[in-house]
Amino acid sequence: MKPKRAIYILSQTKPLKPQTENLILLSLPPFLCLSSSSETSMESINYVPHGGLAAALNANIYGNGTQTLVLSYGYGLDQNVWQLLLPYLVCCFKVLTFDLAFSPNVSPDFYKPSKYSTLHGYSQDLVNLLDELQLKNTVYLGHSMSAMIGSIAATQRPDLFQHLILLSGSPRVS
């Protein structure tokens, strides 16, 4: 059975009425994902090194779940913002974290102002990263500007995304 998708138009001036039959709520209470041990340490979480774009963006894959959850942070942060959530997610998902090109953790030589003057450069990095890691049908969680990056990437390559979770999406930047 093909999953249903919910699409929201962000530029509408009046609220849209959600159609319940097309809306999927992804709810994962933290207590369901706690491992059997009393404490999950980062040492017990898988780190999978990669080359290419994955190395340039410091991509990390944690956990062994069958569903991949991609976590992408907002402007001014880095992937460390997810560290406190990872122990709750790794027992249920394979979790991908990475840095965006503006991060101080990424080589300054990687950042090209002409490429990253719009969000399309970042969305192309996301698509290329998922292709490089051979990840499809992912659950993408994007915060702030990464909500828009994920939206753009999903319109370019819908095969890479099963669900989008968009937290406090920023307005579109042209």
Automatic annotation (TrEMBL):
Gene3D superfamilies with a match to the protein in the record: alpha/beta hydrolase (3.40.50.1820)
A UniProt-annotated Pfam family: Abhydrolase_1
Domain AB hydrolase-1, residue spans: 69-169
Entry's family note: Belongs to the AB hydrolase superfamily.
Stated name of the protein: AB hydrolase-1 domain-containing protein
Organism encoding this protein: Linum tenue
Organism taxonomic ancestry: Eukaryota, Viridiplantae, Streptophyta, Embryophyta, Tracheophyta
